[in-house]
From TrEMBL:
The lineage of its organism: Bacteria, Pseudomonadati, Pseudomonadota, Alphaproteobacteria, Rhodobacterales. This is Phosphonate ABC transporter ATP-binding protein. One of its GO terms (cellular component) is membrane. Gene3D superfamilies: P-loop containing nucleotide triphosphate hydrolases. Keywords: ATP-binding, Cell membrane, Membrane, Nucleotide-binding, Translocase, Transport. It comes from Paracoccus suum. It comes from the Bacteria. Residues 6-249 form the ABC transporter domain.
Length: 271
């Protein structure tokens, strides 16, 4: 896998008079696990959608290695979305299809129109999907309808689907926001293991500070569309958190800001 840096330069997205993302410049080395935090409306989800090109920037540039991602069109853009896999809070699975087929959907970018419409997959792709499910401890559920799974299992299916894209970057938009603590831990452990074992860069929007501290190599906090903090978890002090969320929000927190344990409890959801 080519080790390439993701670079954002002056990235801006404006909706009317509102700048959801405002002049963001970041360099993210290959293989880094980045937690993105901030209040609702801070611009976190828009930032990830800009990187994946689900949302078009108003201005600024995105580079990955020697490629200007923000200039890609057509087939090259579809290939970028394959290389930059997106995982959503609401899973985006087809409830009626079995788990294995949901995972194989991640291979459709490699198929022509007819093959995609008919959902024809090779034996090699089926093997790849089973291997991805095995990494997520989901092989026993391979032929089960996705809609019968728990939320945590469905999110792990979504991660397996992203894996078979063979991405170089994984973007996860609040992947544990609707999960109970046990399933949240399983999902975050899976993302960190993939990051460590495969060297895939991971950017994940999180709504709990403790989770961001426990899993991230680097934490980026956004406020009003801008990067307000960029540093290591240990640098995210009480004073910094107050500045990010405001003293009124901080007062509602029940957490130890020096903790590195993934507790997933007692932290207000201001992401």
């Amino acid at each position: 896998m080519t080790q390439e840096q993701l670079s954002l330069s002056g990235l801006t997205r404006q909706f009317g008079v509102t700048r959801a993302v405002d002049d963001v410049s970041l360099d993210i080395p290959a293989g880094q696990f980045v937690g993105v935090i901030g209040r609702s409306g801070a611009g976190k989800s828009t930032l990830l959608r800009l990187i994946n090109r689900m949302t078009e920037p108003t201005s600024g540039k995105i580079h990955f290695g020697g490629t200007e991602v923000s200039a890609l069109r057509g087939r090259a853009l579809r290939q970028w979305r394959r290389d930059c896999a997106m995982i959503f809070q609401q899973f985006n699975l087809s409830d009626r299809l079995d788990v294995l087929t949901n995972v194989l959907v991640g291979r459709l970018a490699e198929h022509g129109f007819v093959s995609s419409m008919l959902m024809h997959f090779t034996d090699a792709e089926r093997t790849m999907a089973i291997e991805a499910l095995d990494r997520l401890s989901l092989v026993p559920q391979a032929l089960q309808r996705a809609g019968t799974l728990s939320g945590g299992q469905q999110q792990r299916v979504a991660i397996a689907r992203a894996l078979v894209q063979r991405p170089r970057i994984m973007l996860a938009d609040e992947p544990i926001a609707s999960l109970d603590p046990a399933n949240a831990t399983l999902v975050m452990d899976s993302l960190r293991r993939i990051n460590r074992e495969d060297g895939i860069t991971v950017l994940v929007n999180l709504h709990t500070l403790d989770t961001a501290r426990a899993y991230s190599d680097r934490i980026i906090a956004m406020r009003d569309g801008r990067v307000f903090f960029d540093g290591k978890p240990r640098q995210l002090t009480d004073d910094v958190v107050r500045d990010i969320y405001g003293s009124d929000a901080f007062g509602a927190f029940d957490h130890d800001v020096t903790s590195t344990a993934p507790r997933h409890v007692g932290v207000a959801a201001y992401a």
